[in-house]
Amino acid sequence: MTVPRSDQSQTAILGALSIMPMTGYALREEIRDTLGHFWSESFGQIYPALAELERNRLVERRQVEGSRSSTFSLTDAGIAHLRGLLAEAPQPSKPRNGLMLRLFFGAQLGPEACKQLVLDAREQAESTLTHMEAARSEVLHDPDLVQAAPYILLTITAGEHSARATIAWANEALAQLSDLETPRR
């Protein structure tokens, strides 16, 4: 068996499948809904990764009766591989923040356009905070997550802190942008 290279996409996929077997579509939805505040995967990433994981006998595919869908589940080797991936140091990623790029060149846009960008960012952070609070409640009340809840809550707490930090930054940025709009005497 050839063990696939260490890959963060594979880590997310194997991790999601460690919770429960699911179809590729359900896997994508679960990653979006559950990990979405800090991780994303597209169908274009999920299906090739599942095929590679299946070739390497880390997941197994079962046809869903009466459907063209297949359910994927971890094999024992897949569980061992997941544990190895999770034990590795995370791969650093270069940030790509379109908002910060636009604000950096904000002199080209002007204070009013930049203000709208910041207002939109604050609104999105407020929405994220609401989503995190709902996720926290769901995790705390799901009896199937008793063992995983403390770990899941760590990520929810990080999402809450990040959203609150964005809201605080946005409020400061809006005050600074308002000062730019006020003509000086």
Radius of gyration based on Cα positions: 21 Å
Mind describing the biggest β-sheet?
3 strands, antiparallel
| Overall outline | elongated
| Sheet with the most strands: spatial strand order | 1-3-2
What is the typical, i.e. mean, pLDDT?
Answer: 89
The number of distinct helices, counting runs of at least 4 residues, comes to 7
Number of strands: 3
> Pairing-aware structural class of the strands and helices?
mainly alpha
| Beta-strand content | 5-15%
Helix content: 55-70%
Spans where pLDDT lies below 50 across 5 or more residues: 1-6
Distance between the termini: 74 Å
Give me the strand/helix succession. Answer: HEHHEEHHHH
Give the SSE layout.
Layout: H1 8-19, E1 22-23, H2 24-34, H3 43-55, E2 59-63, E3 70-74, H4 76-87, H5 98-104, H6 111-140, H7 149-181
Antiparallel strand pairs: 1-3, 2-3
Structural overview:
By secondary structure, the chain is mainly α. Helix content is 64%, strand content 6%. It contains 7 helices and 3 strands. It has helices spanning 8-19, 24-34, 43-55, 76-87, 98-104, 111-140, 149-181, and strands at residues 22-23, 59-63, 70-74. It has a 3-stranded antiparallel sheet. A hairpin with a 6-residue loop joins strand 2 (59-63) and strand 3. The longest helix is centred in the last third of the chain and has 33 residues, at 149-181. The radius of gyration is 21 Å and the shape is elongated. The N and C termini lie far apart (74 Å). The model is unreliable at 1-6 (pLDDT under 50).
